[in-house]
């Protein structure tokens, strides 16, 4: 995340096991006395799941899981508007950041303050294997990290390739409607289950969808994410009207399970599989009814 350290899209498990993060920086491994500030909500949850409760000394206001435990951890601002002096006052040895969620200049300022900045950048569900390995190695919790790796590998192995791939319009915001491109972690999670985001004519990673965009009609299903916009069942009729169809195949989905990396990715892979199976059964059923 620094100007001198180019970020890689995929970090090997072997490099992670040696304490190397996504920016190519190597950190001293096995620090059981580390004081950790997490600026990434999903990674705050991961740190707790690794049993590092007493070593987490700061988090953002968006770090909300696990709900009871995280309330005891001081807030240090948001993901993109951190309170630098507040972080420094907590005397952390490590700050966890993410390429997409945090600002480069904040990471550089933290480094200048003598803090080890651990850069993360998982681009697909399988990248969580390196993420678990890196955290386990850095903070001396290799056994728990290995257990998470085993759980994720089992979930990934349970997803088979699909001959029937479905196009989905995955909405993350309402008026303006916004969706995801194929170049996102979330899209790669859906792709595991044979669900592919329909293309919108823009290079943006999170493009806006106009009311008359063909994507509404091309999609086999429209998925309404629970975050960042909190879509609920009450929004389904409105979205269905955009398609000029009934509410069939417009559904609300758990955005945290599908888009959060870290320990939640294990359940996310299983959730994506169930979602894909459900949608294929719905499409196949509708096709059978038409054929009759």
Please specify the SSE layout and strand pairing.
Layout: H1 13-17, E1 36-38, H2 41-49, E2 56-59, H3 67-70, H4 84-89, E3 94-98, H5 104-112, E4 116-120, H6 128-138, H7 142-157, E5 166-171, E6 177-178, H8 185-192, E7 195-197, E8 208-209, H9 215-218, E9 221-225, H10 236-243, E10 250-253, H11 255-259, H12 264-291
Parallel strand pairs: 1-2, 1-3, 3-4, 5-7, 5-9, 9-10
Antiparallel strand pairs: 6-8
Structure, explained:
The chain has 292 residues and is an alpha/beta fold. It is built from twelve helices and ten strands. It has helices at residues 13-17, 41-49, 67-70, 84-89, 104-112, 128-138, 142-157, 185-192, 215-218, 236-243, 255-259, 264-291, and strands at 36-38, 56-59, 94-98, 116-120, 166-171, 177-178, 195-197, 208-209, 221-225, 250-253. The strands form three sheets. Strands 2-1-3-4 form a four-stranded parallel beta sheet, sandwiched between helices. Strands 7-5-9-10 form a four-stranded parallel beta sheet, sandwiched between helices. A two-stranded antiparallel sheet has the order 6-8. Strand 3 (94-98), helix 5 and strand 4 form a beta-alpha-beta unit. Helix 7 (142-157) packs parallel to helix 12 (264-291). The longest helix is centred in the last third of the chain and has 28 residues, at 264-291. The chain starts with 12 loop residues before the first helix and ends with a helix. Residues 1-5 have low confidence and may be disordered.
């Amino acid at each position: 995340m620094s100007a001198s350290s180019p970020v890689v899209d995929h970090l090997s498990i072997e490099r992670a096991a040696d304490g190397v993060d996504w920016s190519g920086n190597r950190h001293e491994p096995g620090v059981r006395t580390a004081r950790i500030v997490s600026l990434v909500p999903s990674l705050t949850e991961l740190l707790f799941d690794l049993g590092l409760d007493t070593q987490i000394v700061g988090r953002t206001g968006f770090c909300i899981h696990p709900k009871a435990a995280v309330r005891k951890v001081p807030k240090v601002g948001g993901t993109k508007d951190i309170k630098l002096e507040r972080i420094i006052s907590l005397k952390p040895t490590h700050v966890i950041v993410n390429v997409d969620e945090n600002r480069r200049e904040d990471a550089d300022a933290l480094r200048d303050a003598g803090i080890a900045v651990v850069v993360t950048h998982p681009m697909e569900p399988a990248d969580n294997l390196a993420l678990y390995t890196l955290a386990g190695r850095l903070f001396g919790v290799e056994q728990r990290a290995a257990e998470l790796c085993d759980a994720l590998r089992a979930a990934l192995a349970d997803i088979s390739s699909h001959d029937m791939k479905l196009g989905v319009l995955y909405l993350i915001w309402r008026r303006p409607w916004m969706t995801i491109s194929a170049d996102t972690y979330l899209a790669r999670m859906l792709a595991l289950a044979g669900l592919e985001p329909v293309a919108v004519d823009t290079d943006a990673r999170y493009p806006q969808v106009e009311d008359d965009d063909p994507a509404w009609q091309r999609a086999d299903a429209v998925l309404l994410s629970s975050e960042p916009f909190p879509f609920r069942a009450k929004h389904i009729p409105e979205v269905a009207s955009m398609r000029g169809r009934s509410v069939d195949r417009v559904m609300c989905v758990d955005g945290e399970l599908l888009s959060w990396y870290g320990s939640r990715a294990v359940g996310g892979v299983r959730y994506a599989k169930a979602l894909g199976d459900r949608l294929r059964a719905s499409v196949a059923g509708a096709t059978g009814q038409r054929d009759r």
